[in-house]
## 1
Amino acid sequence: MFRRSIVSHATHDVIISGGGMVGAATMASLQQLRQRLATPAGLPTPLDKLTMVDVGRRPTYDPNNIFHQLRTVSVTPVSSKIVDSLGGWKKLTTKHSYYRIAVRHEQANGPLLQDSDRSSSFFINHFLGNKTTTQPLLEFTDLRKPVGFMCYNAELNTVMVEVVEENMAKEGGSAKDALHFESKLENIKLPGKAVVDGPLGTATLRKGEETSEEAFKLVLGCEGRGSPLRDVLNVSSLQHDYSQTAFVCDVRLQAPSDGNVCCFQNFFRDGMIIALLPMSPDSANIVFSTTPEHAKKLTAMTQEELVAELNRRLHDFAPADIPKILEVPEGEMKGKTVRKQGSFPLRLNVATNPYAPRAILLGDAAHGIHPFAGQGLNLGIYDVCALTDVLEKAVRAGQDVGNSVTVGQVFAGEMLAHTTPMIAGMEFIKHAIYGAPGFSCVGMKLLNETPILSTLGKDAIFQVSSGAAFAARHPDCFLLE
């Protein structure tokens, strides 16, 4: 079979590689920025031709597909504001609010741990006692407004692609945007030094047997952890294999009286972490960070065995607080009965310089992190907002959108500003809990119960985890208005 090659004479202002949540949000954001840059005379803008390319099919959310409701994301108030400004928030059918986060640790709360193992020193024993407690070691509550929202990844992705398509339809022929699904970029070539006005980057766009040669001013890598553009950039990075697997599943609950508005997270001395994330008044999503061997055992368990194991790790810690799991729902898939469950490996991979001339990495392509704090997608959404802010200032100053100094370098600084505190904080917590569980429990207890520490410490954590600190850095970005 012959391959047909086409030479494209048009230059793309921006090519977005990856049509997931971050890629689609980036496209929608740049479409809005183009409208802000438009002149009454209708003169061309530096964002007239936007193109998004993705190897997969166009995302279509199906609430009856059990695997479309398997991967979830915790969306912060600031992220929800950004998605709302893009036009996507009102389209979501699932955005379950939660108002409380409760953290427990096996050292103090585990019902099966021997009392003699709870405290190994007088200091720890004085604060924790040597008996189990059902009270959280650390708790965040805000009854006035949601701490966050739980959404389905598949629905969020579909909604943002719909927003992009609606923007294209509204602009009609005035814009030259394009979406290419089941396509990919190959042979990406970038300039070898800092770019001001040229040369442009080039790539081969492949769709099935057809190929075309494309030129671009800026290419954005939004493909996720396995980003091909990241390989092209060959950037240095911080990497760590946690030697863990995340086992995920949906569960049906004995409906709690509060409407199921709390995220529960239990830590274990052996490094395992389990989270129960509320999705509706009587359902939740489980993310269990465990060993690969244990994840396989969980996958192979019977319905009764799995429910018992999950309740032992969650409900039994605090029967009056953590809701009881009744079942892991099952459904039909290709003629077979399957459970709502899955798994994926956990690794840290953070690019230290997520840019090059005419190229920038965003989202998981730039910073793949551990999911226990639920901040992965939020950091990607913050990337979208920060890049939009940087590009608007650069364009209004007459700069090239692919300039590696006024765009790439400035954006990298903004990315580090909102990712570094979160990643450093998560790594500190993980190492403290695993390396010295007793002392980490004391720290959480002091933070939770000492008035001045509770006020200052929790406020500082909230500033970062809610996105408020990020929003404060970008007061002029139209997505946060």
## 2
Amino acid sequence: MESATICPSFLRETISALSFGKALTVLAEATSATVVLFDAVGDVVVGPITGNVLAARLAQSEQGRSLLVAAHRSAIHDQAIAAPSVDAAALIESMDHFALPLTIGDRRAGTLTLGDRPRHLLSPAVVERLAHAAGLPPTALASAASQLRPWSAGEAFAARNLTSLLGELFTELCARDKDLQHRIEELSAVYNIGGLVAGSLDLNDALGKVAALICTVMRVKACSIRLLDEQTGGLAIKAVHNLSPEYLGKGPVTVDDNPIDASALRGEIVRISDAPNDPRTRYPQQARKEGIVSGLVCGMVYRGEAVGVLRVYTGEAHVFTPFEESLLQAVASQVAAAILTSRLFAEALEAERYARQLAYAGEVQRRMIPERAPSYEGLDIGAIYRPTFEVGGDFYDFISLPGNNLGLAIADVSGKGVPASLQMASLRAALRVNAYHMYDIDRILSEVNRHLCRDTLVGEFATAFYGVLNPGTGRLTYCNAGHHPPMLLRGGEIQELLTGGTVLGMDPDAAFDRGIVDLRAGDVLLLYTDGAVEALNFADEQFGNARLTESLRRHSEHNAQLIAQNLLWDIRRFRGLADRTDDLTMVVVKVGEKAAG
């Protein structure tokens, strides 16, 4: 019966014949990692070949070299291979290692391992532990460790791809393929291409370099990279190498009109043997004039998401080999992954910038909300303000007016977020300006309404309640512009303040009335926005007026701020873990003896 493994001497002879040791050096240098090649029984054939300063420093001592080999051997999951005799836990726990079995047919020839790149920056404690395991003073490794850059997800992905492709290549070329060195250069280019795009802040510049590199590696006449616009189906040129402006200006390229690109975006590799005479070619005359004969087209697709199309062209008839097709597919996949990563990074930066601006806007808006309630003899005032987002459309305000009068305002602008916050600022400013210059409350609300009608679009509006309270007499003159009516709790009974008019911002000619109520000692006045009564629980039930009224009665013996806080707690307890869908604002005024009429 034939052995399931290949004789170790065969592996050594093959490596020598194919100059595979040089290829492993290229792999180590390209990935800045350590490479070790083991035979079928786990003995070292080549290596460790170090590609970074830390591994190189470890390899300078016999104990450190044994540590590297043991860490790599531990990555081989094969019961036939003995466990490492050296404790390599320090290296295994802090570094990534990858093992690729090498098989020829159904027989195992050996294992290629890649590793010794950290997942994170190495801490002094880890460096000291590595130094101890290698029998070296910590100072000998500290400098090298500081130069060792952690492995990013993109680099690790590219390195594993490169190692896998290299392993497949080796097993395919055990018959001393004469093109091995060129293939190694091509695979190194695959790795470099992914890093070139992922590490660039200028995507167009990086793609231009990729196009030139592809032409060099694949020895073709020209290359083009087109990115897909998912909205229009257009394929826009983003990078070219060795194609004339006249050819590039031949006309639009869309997926619907181009079966070659449509097939490529579906994941097919498209071969073009004679472009000028191929019926699928969209612009045959321009291809002939450009001197394009054969071509290979591959979609740039990563994890099912199509990014664009990669094309290479030759100036003479050429039949692309399966390896060239695989190479172009690997390059296309790398470029697609790098482009998507670049886009995600750009989106993350934009989201972070927007979040900072939104946070700042929230700070500015919160400065418009009174930090503390004003102090008036005989009045106890409390307030709660909870926007759904950083900014919102609710606000309340206290306005000190002549004659020791107090302006009380609460409003709710339709919508949420930034648009609502801008309307809120406009409404607040208009209310304050008119409150300082007018006495009649109905006129004040009329002017504010006309101001909002000029500033709002159809469907945008605000509700508001504005009242002027004389603390000396307890008289409250008010106007309710379509707002949830404030509740006046007196002797256990609730009176709603309804007098006023319609919502603000809809009808510039709307008329408003004013109401008057004389407050008495012990009265509790609650102003609130719809977030208090429309809060939903998981059963889609609203907190509602009845619950708010009962809650107000239950907590009316407390001071004003504690009443507001207890109302908020009751609403939160009712809502539970359900999402908050609206801003919530409440103002509580509790009347004492001095303010009673």
